[in-house]
Amino acid sequence: MKIRILILTCMLLASFTASADELQMIISGTAIHQGSIENRGEPNEKNYGLGLQYDINQQRDWIPTINMASFKDSNDNTSRYVGGGIKRRYRFDTGTQKLNLDFGAIALVMQRPEYNDDEPFFGAVPFVSFSNGWGGINATYVPETEVDTLAFWYFQFSLKLLSF
Asked: How far is the CA of 12 from the CAs of 4, 17, 63, 113, 124, in angstroms?
C-alpha cells in the first residue's frame, strides 16, 4: 500500500511539472498547541522538516497547488504527507515589491507512526500564506479530532527554488 501511494504521488507530481509555474522548498518550523494531553506532558513544538510545493499557473487568482513533506511531529516521530489543493491569491504590489496573501485548503494523504497503525490516512486542512515572491510563511490550523489529540497551529516557511 505504501509503495503504491509513493508511485502514484510521483506520477502525479511529474504530470504537473511541465505546466508548473513555481517550485518551492518547504521548511517545516513549529506547531503551537492548544493545551497539553494528560499523562503525556507537553508536546514537541519544534516540528522541523523539509518538503516541496508546486504552484500551478500562479498568474491567476485561483492557484492549484501540490505539496509533500516529511517532518518531526509533536511526538518526535517522523510524519510524511502528500497532498493537493487550491488557494485564492490576493496581490498587493507596492511598486518593486510583490506581496501576496493566499487562503486555501489542501486534501492530503499522511502517514504517522502513532496513528492508524502507521498506515496512510486521508485528511483535509485550511491554510493561509503570506509571501513576497521569493519566500513566505504558511500557517495551518488543525482542529482537535480525537480525545487524545490537541488543536494546533502549524507554521512553515517557503523559499522559491525555480520558476517555469
From this structure: 12, 9, 17, 25, 18
User: Which structural domain range is residue 127 located in?
Assistant: 2-163
pTM of the model: 0.77
For residue 20, give the CATH number of its domain: 2.40.160.20
The span from the CA of 118 to the CA of 98, in Å, is 41
* Three-state SS sequence of 101-123: EEEEEEEEEEECCCCHHHCCEEE
Please state, as a whole number, how many other Cβ atoms lie within 10 Å of the Cβ of residue 107: 12
Lowest mean pLDDT among 3-17, 73-87, 105-119: 3-17
Rounded CA separation 17/2 (Å)? 23
